Structures are given as C-alpha cells and as structure tokens.
Structures
1.
Amino acid sequence: MRNDKIIPGIILVAIGAAILLANFGYLHFYWYNIFRLWPIFLVIAGVNLVLANNKTVWAGALKIAVIVIGIGFLFFGNTGDNYGFWSRHNWHSWHRNDNNNDNNDNDNNNDDNDNDGDRTPGKNLFSQPFANNVRVARLNINGGATSYYLSDTTNQLFTANTNDNRDKYIFSSSVSDSVTVVDFKMKNHNGFNFNSDDDNRVNMALNPNPVWMVNIDAGAAKVDFDFSKFKIKSLDVRGGAAAFDIKLGQPLTTTNVEVNTGVSAVDIKIPENAACSIESNSGLSGNDFEGFTKTHDNFYETANFAAAKNKLYIHINGGLSGFNVSRY
C-alpha cells in the first residue's frame, strides 16, 4: 500500500468502526461534535501535508498520534449540545423553494401579501392575525445559518421575534384550498456572518387551535421546536448540516414526519404512550430508537402500534447523521 493512502484509510476505518459500534449500542457518539469540532480534520490534514515528504519513523508516529488523539476527542469529547461553528460564525446558505412562484426575492419585494411586521432597529416582530375560521394552516420555514426556537403559543396565528440587524427575513401569508399558508424565509444571502447565536436567533410561536402542516428547509441551522402543545398533521424536515431537536405531542389519526438530512444531528421526542412506526433509510448514520422493536429491515414499531387508532409515522433518510427517537 502506498504511504499516502494509509492515513485516509485509518480515518475511514476509525469513523466506520465508531458508527458501527454506536449502532449496536457499544459506543455513545456525541454527534454534535461533528459540527463543533470539525476543525480537527483541518489539523489532521495540515499535519499530513507538512510531513508528507518525511519518511522517518517519528514522522509516521506523529501523524498516527494526531489522528488517534483527534478522532478520539471527536468520538468521546462531551462538549455539550452547543451547535458550534454555525452558532458563532454563521454561514448563510439559503435554498430557494422550488414551489415558490415569487421571482422577486430582493429587498424590494412587491408581493401584496408580504407582512413585514413591526420593525425596530435590531429586533423585529413578524405576525399574522388569527381568524376563527382557520382550521388548517401550513408553515413553511426556509433559511439556514440561524437558530430557530418554538415552544410558546400565541393568540395570533403566527409570530416570530428576530434579532435582525441585516433585514434578512421575508414574511408573507396567503390562502390556498382553504389552507392558510405562512411563509417565513431568509432572503438570498451568501457568505459568512460573524455574529453570535443571539444575533441569529428566531423565536416563534403558533396558535394551538388549527391543525398544522410544517415544512422546514434549514440548510445549516439549529432547530429546537416543541410541538407538544400543537396539533401536527405533518412535519417535513430537511437540512444539510444541521441540528434538529423536535418534541411532538399526541398524534392525530395520522401524523407523518419526514426527515431528510445530510450530515446532521436529529433528536425526536414522542409521548410515552404514542403509537409510532419508524422507517429508516439512513446509510452510514447512527440510529438510536428507544422503546422500539425492529419488525424487519429498516422498520421499527412501538408495542401498541398495530391496535392504536392514532398513529405517528416517522420516515428517516440521511447520509452521515445521528438519529435519536426517544419517549417522554
């Protein structure tokens, strides 16, 4: 084997072995470390570049030592759930919604349905009044490099409080097929934003009366949503390199949750007595489904699923992510 292939091979073997051990419960992997400690890979690559032409024993030993220490810290270092790089040095990566027919996404948006809310320097409030005839509502969230939080109820249909010095959010509402649609998205913005987590935080609240359908396309972001007080019919979560912490309440007759991620940490909490089925096509990802029984390949169920009237279906697709479903 050529020397220049040994180091990448060791890294791949170490990561693959750790994921396998985590899948079988022998290793607790701190998935948030992927986002917080990713510069470890830069250090490993840098050391190998510097010593690339040094064939001495000490150089080889040093390269292996750096890998062992770096990967070991990545696997076992409990750094907490701080999102790391994106919460401090945010990389804005907004993904355009293909279903949005509004082609004017610049700062002079002329959509008559746009509602910019109450705007003050640095802080903004976006809101949509609640009408008693609203039975079903859809919330579309699109935008990365932000920390999204939801736990409170409101007598409005929807509110969002932002620290928005850069006027980077667009808010609009409409009615389609008797469904009130609320769109909250980030303007097209590329590059880096060196602001703190508090400067990129969005606190949302929903009205608990309607049945909600929620779509989240977060890119690189942190999403901490407590839906336990709301009636959720469907939840579609998409993210590239993101952290999702989702708490669900009792399912409706049918509640569907779709999760599609790249390199992300996904933690879903469901009620202890909720009947739930999980279909997981998660590639090299680590799965931890507490209280579930594997029925056949890629399928898991709670013991009460078959006889239940109200059922929760979770469909998971991911590349190299950590998926955790637990009960509270």
2.
Amino acid sequence: MSTDYQQAREALGARLRELRFTCPAGRLTGQQLARRLGWQGSKVSKLENGRQTASPDDLRAWTDATEQPDAYPELAARLAGFESHIRSWRRALAHGFKPMHERLTTEINGTSEIRVWEEAVIPGLMQTPEYARHVVQRYADLLGVTKGVEDAVRTRAQRQEWLYQPGRRLRVLMWEAALRSLICPPSVLIAQLDRLTGMTGMDTVELGIVPFTAPMKIVPANGFWIMDDRVVVTEDWHAEVWLDDAENVALYGKIWKTLSESAAYGADAASVINAARRALHSG
C-alpha cells in the first residue's frame, strides 16, 4: 500500500483517538466506545492504529458516539483527501518502480491464497523475467518513469518464491486476450506461454482460461487480485487502488466467481494456450 496512503490513514486514526479521549462527558476507553457503537472492540483498535480504512458511516457514528458531531466534516474531508492519493500512479512512482513493487511483495508474503483476474496480461507471479521487462517498460514509457525498471523485474522474479512455500495457493483466471497480446516480441510471448504450461502442473497453482468463444455473464474488465478475502488490489490507467472494506472485497469475490464459471481448466485450458502458441509460430 502506498506510503502516503498509509500515513494518512494512521493520521486519521490518531484524530479518532483524540476524539475518544476528549469526549465531553469524559474520556472513553476503546471498549466503552465499542459498546456505544455496537462494534467489536478490535474495530476501534484497527481504525485508531491505521489498520482499517474507515467508511463515512464509521466516521459519522464515531463523532456521534464521542459527542462531537461537528468534527464529522473535517474527518470526511480527510478521508476523501487521502483516498485520492491512492489513485495517482505518478505519485506512487515518483521514486521509481522498486518501492511500489516491494510494498506489494510484503502484502503477498503475508497472504495464503491469492485469486487473480487478468484480462490482457499474464499475472506477475507467472511472468518470465523477459516478459516482465517488456510489461514494466511499457508502463515506464507511458508514465515517464525513468528509473527502476530492472529493480522491478528482479522484484517480480523474487516474488515468485511465494509459490514454493507451504500453504500457498494461487488461483488465476485469464481472458484469452492475455495469451495473445503482443506487448512483447513473439519469441518472448512464446517462452511465456511455455512457462504457463509448465506451471499448470504445480500443486500450488490453479489456472483457468476464459476463451474468446466462452459465454460471459459479466464484462471481462479490469484486472484485480484478491488476497485472503482481506484486501483487493485493482488497477486502471491512472491508478492502483487498494480496497479493504468487507463490502468491496465481497463484491470482487463475486466477480471472480462469476468469471470462473466461463473458464476452461486442465486439458481444456492447455488447448487454449497451445492454440495461442501455434498462432505465434504460424505468424
């Protein structure tokens, strides 16, 4: 998660703690406030320590429970302000790709199961170094980032050690377009497809391919990663967005499940990969 985002979340938590301490009727303990709100005590702790993002309803309830409703507009403005930081690629990449990639690696290392949907690119945990280099360079060119490409490639490669650790599970869904997008030379993509085929035999990996011809129940849009039903990371052209509220995590879980119903697995998935490889050879 971006340093700016986390620092702002911690600052908001400190302000919430201040409101609890300065309740006009007397300082409240965390448990006393939780009882007023009808929450688990752990939620108060997580919000105050920047380990959970408050919703506008959470902020409204907090200011009412601490008898300081006039503080709500200030808190809502803080929330809107720091959520906007998370949406800026340029801000996140101000110091190159390496810091951003290292933060994601930390999150992945604390995760047991990752569910991925990618509509146009092979997921990073399955990329060959050469394929990764071309993907990262495309973004660097677009966003004007001049440093850190090789660091990012090395970080992606090192991150794949996660796949070989006990208790890990990677469940990937890809649209067929990801197998055919020439964001790299055909020879690099062929090697990448070979890598995919080899990974299907790993007991830590489940791979589903959604063929172009498959009936779809939902538009195959933006890629995203779901980590242990705890946090969702999704990307758009302008941003990387992290979502950790239960409602959005559940929504992305539903989207992933719906997409999986159109996917081919096992030998059928291998046939789609082989067809993409043959098309590259014939081209």
3.
Amino acid sequence: SCSRYFGSGVIIATAFVHLLDPAYSSIGPNTCVGMTGKWASYSWPPAIVLVTLFLAFLIDIASAIWVEHKYGIVDDRNRNQVAELFVSGHNMAMESNMHEHIYDNSVNLTICESSDEFELDNSKEAKVQFAAFLVLECGIIFHSVIIGLNLGACGIEFKTLYPVLVFHQSFVGLGIGARLSAIPFKKNDIVPYMCSLAYGLVTPLSISIGLGVRTTYKGNSYTSNIIQGVMNVISAGILIYTGLVELLARDFILHQECHRDQEKLVFNVVCTMTGAGIMALVVKWA
C-alpha cells in the first residue's frame, strides 16, 4: 500500500519538475528555439501540455464508454434476470409447498448469477484501470527514451549522470509497478509482464541508440532541443492528467471507503507527499 501511494507522488513530481521544467528550458520563450521562427509567436509548452491533457482525457472517456458498452449492458441483463428468477421462485414457494424445490433452484441460480456478476465487475474494473495505466506508461516511456538518448550520447558527465538517472528510473519504475500490481488481472495473464518488460527495456535500448549516434547527436543542438522539448511536454501532459485524475482523485477523493479510516488516510497522504518530495529533490542532480 505504501509503495503504491509513494509511487503516485513520484509520478506527479516527475511530470512537473522532471518534464515540464526541462521542456521550458528547451523550447520555452527565453530559449534559442523559443526566440526564433514561429516558436517565438506563442508560448508552446503550455499549449502542447493542454492538448495532450485533453487527448488523455478523451482516451479515458473512450475507454470507459467501450468497457461500459461491452460489459455494462450484460451486467444489467444479468441483474434483471436474477431478480425475476428470485421473485418467481419465491412466489411459487409461497403458493405451494410442493414447489419448494423450484424456489431452492432459483436461490441457487441467484447465487451463481451473483458470482458471475462479481467476476464481471472485476473484469470491467480491470479493463478501466488498465486503459488508464497504458496512458500512464506511454508518458513514462516517452520520458525514458529521452533519458536513454541523453545518457548514451553524453561525455565526461556520464559518471555523475548515470547513478542519478538509475535512482530516478528506479523510483519511476516503483511508481508504475505499484499501479500495475493494483490492477486485478486474471490468473496467469501475461499482460502485466509485457508491460513491465516494455518499461525495463526502453531505457537500455535508448542508451544503445544514443551510443550509436553519439558522434553525430548533439544534445544541445537546435533540432535536439525541439525533439526533447516536445517529447517532454507531451509526457508532462499525460502524467499530469493521470497523476491528478487517475491517481490522486480516484484514490483519495472518489474512493469513499478510504475516508473511514482516517489514520490510514493520513499515512497514505504522507507516503504520496514523501514520494513527490524525494523525486523533486532528485532534480537537483538530474
């Protein structure tokens, strides 16, 4: 539980201090990119974040509607069938003791249908949570690509940058891993392993690419600043939406059960703020 909320804080801090701030340093109004051409006509970082945030919002809505359309209608039908069968069986039992076995069968069917409904709700919840997680992981992966490229192409600063980025990626991995572990996947489902593998491999692959192009790739060039800046603000927009809506709002505000145990609530809030604070401190070195 602690790692889950600690990870939420890490992800939110990553969006603001590890993505949004560097993006302003790359393509902001006071940079070489931001003062040239069409980049100088508008402050693009917040605009790109805004567009990305609404795209994540639309994806979230679309996935929720798809899940409701696929599972919600069936769920309502099952519920109605259970109610009809229960009432029918109850009336027949009241009319004649000779038909008690019909009532028993209806009750057994009700229990069976209720169990199926529970499994249906679990599947529905897993689909919604997984759709939100995919949006979150996409934002993290964009950020990891930039980290890998910069680390592979850097020079003498590698000795300082490497341990800091290992620490950084470990905390981010803890954050998304905790969110992934909270999704109720079916037993022996390979999807969570594939998601973990995707995150685990993207940074080493990007480092390999960075090593391959280190003689031609210049981290401070005009083109690289544009690429890094745009990818950072896209990632920031995704993580800001998922961090505030999918993580904080759903875990603390919309989840009414957590309000009953106030001690646990305070502990979870402290874990979240601790994760955000530590990740914000890491920006001093990375």
